[in-house]
Amino acid sequence: MRTLKLLAATGALALFLTGLALAPAARADEVLVFAAASLKNALDDASADFQRGSGESVKISYGASSALARQIENGAPADLFISADLDWMNYLQDKHLIKIETRTNLLGNRLVLVAPADRAKTVDIKPGFPLAALLGDGRLAMADPDAVPAGKYGKAALQKLGLWDTVADRVARAEDVRAALRFVARGEAPLGIVYQTDAAAEPAVKVVGYFPADSYPTIIYPVAVTARSSNPAAKELLDFLRSIAARPFFEKQGFTVLAMMPSHLLAQVGGTR
Fold first, then answer.
1. What pTM value is reported for the model?
2. Rounded to whole angstroms, how far apart are CA atoms 238 and 221?
3. What would the DSSP string read from start to end of 118-172?
């Protein structure tokens, strides 16, 4: 318990510092992508395929959408930004920091409750379900509900279900959703709220319940080229991520693909043909 509190505090500090720091500069010929932490497995695979097919070089920096957006605001040289919610993309758009004509709603996701795989018991998630009792003397792992999209979605769901006030003081706030997932995977928290895709990427946890779709805002991952980007390969990568060629990488991890390029444009895009 003491360890988890220390880790949560460390995560909160890291989140703050990450928002102030700038990512390492990419090479001039390299596409630098800032992407929500929950995208890591799918985006690593998709970008590798794009690089093989196009010959371009891609570097990806993962983290909380809030921290990444702040980095872009502070001058980080990202070419492409993929957020886990609309709010942080809107934040950059309002500050004229993205190329609006490139903005696309790329993916969708679901919110789930996870437990360590060796002690997972199915939970019927509905208004008033006994979440506090299920936690025992443990804490609920979540991405920071005040800033990070996964945490904001989770808080909204718990509020809609009438449970937030019963667990608000027992939340282990993580710097991003993957950090919350690690709390549960290591057995440091008995339950956690993450995306369905995160649970699929971590064999040490198991989904014990799905939050009702109407209990939280629709989860949408928007993508856009940043206003400061002058690398033409950034738009090529964006087109690839929107293409049929990239779709299997996202669907394999459990994402819902919202955007897809017409097939007659695929020949202009790097990646698997």
1. 0.85
2. 13
3. GG-------TT--HHHHHTTS-EEEE-TTTSHHHHHHHHHHHHTT-HHHHGGGEE
Tell me the CATH number for domain 2-108+221-268: 3.40.190.10
124 DSSP β-pair partners? none
Residues of the chain with CATH 3.40.190.10: 2-108+221-268, 111-215
Residue 254 Ramachandran class (φ > 0 left, ψ -120 to 50 alpha, else beta): left
Q: What is the pLDDT of residues 17-36, one digit of tens each?
A: 444 444 455 556 799 999 99
Query: 3-class DSSP state for residue 233?
Result: helix
Q: Is the dihedral of CA 254, 258, 262, 266 positive or negative?
A: negative
The CATH number assigned to the domain with range 111-215 reads 3.40.190.10
Closest listed residue to residue 219, CA positions, set 231, 228, 211? 211
Region of 187 please: left (phi>0), alpha (psi -120 to 50) or beta.
left
